[in-house]
Amino acid sequence: MPDYSSLSSNPTSHPPVSEPVAPSSTQDLQGSNHTPTADDDKALRWREYKQYIEALIFASDEALSVKTIRQALGQEKLTDLDIEQMIDELNQEYEQTGRVFRIRHIAQGYRFLTEKQFYHIIQKLMQPKLQRRLSQAALETLAIIAYRQPISKAEIEAIRGTNADYVIRMLLERNLIEVSGRGEGAGKPLLYGTTKEFLDYFNLRSLSDLPKPREIEELMREADAQLLQQELNARLKVELDKEDKKSADADKE
């Protein structure tokens, strides 16, 4: 790690700077018989920087790059490896204490994400909000662009069977898609592709993380099966209610 001893800092916003080092698991910095040393001070600085990084990522609505984190800390001599190691240590602490979240690197930087095994319960809470944010038409258009980019408006409309002017304009305004070039056909139509904000919005690291078409088909079949089961259960309940009513009427007679 670099030498931080000559780096100045603002004591009102940052701790006094010395080279931060990861604390040893065997150190007892609070021991009554322990005399504080320079290494103890460095270990405490390391822990404080980890807390600052955790707070920054937690408070941000967007993924934070290492550069942004370093600038917010005001410590330009912190290396990328320093910050990445601190984030790794935070994730180890979350795992050891059974937390349901981790700090993950996605398209534009680091952000807190819930572990995948909890998605199903969170989806029940978030689905109405997601639907309000993006309409079904917008989601369908976005999916077409994501899987077939670069693609022209005419091709999108041919697939969806409807005009796409408004949806494309809305997706451009939200910076989820961008003009990625021009086609070779007549008039050289504009071609559209997804942006880094698209990856950030859907918590994807790259386009290779998109579900494969076969996986989507399997999910759709599972969803159809669930809907069918729900419909059968509803019909069964109606029939049972009818039988209960008949029995109750017979008892009255």
From TrEMBL:
Annotated segments matching region Disordered: 1-41
Keyword rRNA-binding: no
Keywords: Cell cycle, Cell division, Chromosome partition, Cytoplasm
Keyword Cell cycle: yes
Cited Pfam families: SMC_ScpB
InterPro entries attached to this UniProt entry: ScpB_csome_segregation, WH-like_DNA-bd_sf, WH_DNA-bd_sf
Coiled-coil boundaries: none
Biased composition (Polar residues): 1-12, 23-36
One record GO biological process: chromosome separation
Name listed for the protein in its UniProt record: SMC-Scp complex subunit ScpB
Gene designation per UniProt: scpB
